[in-house]
Amino acid sequence: MLVAGSHSPPNPGELLRSNAMQLLLAAATTSYDLVVIDTPPLTAVSDVLPLLRLVDGVIAVGRPGHDRRHAAANLRDTLEASGGVLLGVVVNGLKVKGTAYDAYYTSPGS
Q: What number is the average pLDDT over the span 26-41?
């Protein structure tokens, strides 16, 4: 794990577009089977857009009731405009009732 540190750089977009970032990702992809970059939402912060040309794809993360349809449409438009590839979607906080998975979601004493 490589963390960003406690202080934000003065211009994160410039750092992400730098040759140093390209070299770091190239080294990581030759050393590891899977490289995951956790970024702020693409639709909220344009600084991460340069990374789209350096990665194989994007996994979108959302929470039902918190993320709106227009945010998903903006993400789709951003990926299409930049040539980004949506690999999948992770849904956090989903309440699943009436399925075989109920046993995994019941709290003790319920």
A: 90
58-79: average pLDDT: 83
Q: How far apart are CA 26 and CA 47, in angstroms?
A: 20
* Neighbouring residues of 4: CB distance < 8 A, sequence distance ≥ 6: none
List of residues 6+ apart from 60 with CB closer than 8 A: 72, 75, 86, 88, 89, 90
Residue with tokens 């730098």: 18
Cα distances (angstroms) measured from residue 29 to each of 16, 25, 48, 70, 108: 16, 6, 18, 33, 43
User: 12-105, what's its fold?
Assistant: Rossmann fold (3.40.50)
User: pTM of this prediction?
Assistant: 0.70
Compute, in degrees rounded to 10, the torsion defined by CA atoms 56, 88, 52, 75.
160
The whole-number average pLDDT for the span 47-70 is 83
DSSP 3-state of 80:
helix
Percentage of the chain surpassing pLDDT 70? 85
